[in-house]
Amino acid sequence: MHTIGIIAEYNPFHNGHIHQINTIRQHHPRARIIAVMSGSFTQRGCPAILDKWQRAHHAVLGGVDLVLELPTAFAVRSAQDFARGGVSLLARLGIADGLAFGAESSAAVLQRAAASMDTQEVQEKLHVAVRSGMSYAAALSRAIAETCSIDEALLKKPNNILAIEYLRTLKKSRLPIEPLIIQRAGAAYHDQELYERYASASAIRREIYAPLPERERLAKVLPASGAEALLKARSEGAIPETELLLRPLLAELEHNNAGRLQEIYSFNEGLENRLLRVAAHCRSLEELLNECRSRRYPKSRIQRLLLHLLLRLRKEEVHTFDEAGALYARVLAFNHTGKDMLHEIKQRGTLPLVSKTSHFLKDPARCSPQERSPLENMLAVDVHATELRRLCLPKLGRHGEDFRRSPLFKIGR
Fold it and tell me: pTM, whole model, 2 decimals?
């Protein structure tokens, strides 16, 4: 493998990510590394703790050569869509021959699970479980576990969920990209404790949101640049608060009835009616999420659903995106090696490289989705997400950062 991709959120970039990069280079010393990274919002529908340019810069400082943005249209979706969007972007660059990702289980277990997902037996069990009221994710884990005699708990671990979807996507698309599975080091994905060297992103975010974050504890689990950036952002009111999404959400609901909500991606089975009913009396986003959740629709899925509404992601539009796959590669940060890779992508890839948003999209407020191309619509969702994240900051940031900011270049390598 000469060019290896990583699909990540880096929310924030921490020592566990550095371990992954170092492990890749231990196996492939001459490898170049591309990270395809979520932008302004994460897969769970929450605003990223630092903006996408900062997180991309920290990744390059930590050993990544080139960071590209995973379009929001894929980044804020299910594990299957997240994986499919990231892999489609990597494949269309024309230079990636490897995909590295973390996991808590052996490659053999993950490969067996991935190979079973689209079999008739698993699909039949999946649909039966969903009809009984289980969430899609829980039903899929149950169906795979029963079919392959795998411990169901292993299939519910977040890194394993994505690992299986990456393997599934690579198998179905028959891409010349080899998987490189790296065992996760240190804390589990949702572990809330800060350990000596490795901590989960969840634990780090919890510490940053604490009334008095402990600088010394953060310094042990984050590279110095990341720790300083987070603490500086905290002191300047630049750490987003998801709760601040409530008011734009209520404003959006004022202009929508149940019929219009049904046009939004992921709204079905009467969820639009429940949301309108609950929103009429809830005083906090947390209260609204708790009242909307159910066995079939867990809190994380409701959180994503609300973001789809705020981004005005229509079902028809998402179908077009899924048919097309990633339509551009938005450049966020790179080093000298990454600069050479960009030249190579221009020659061998099938995607346009976006360095300046204005070259591909004018003010998205001036045109309706019907008047724009699929590429413009996909990029407009990224712009909308950046503006929505801005509304989550205690101290409101500048408008139009997607049109102001340029890719960050780090001298070296």
Answer: 0.94
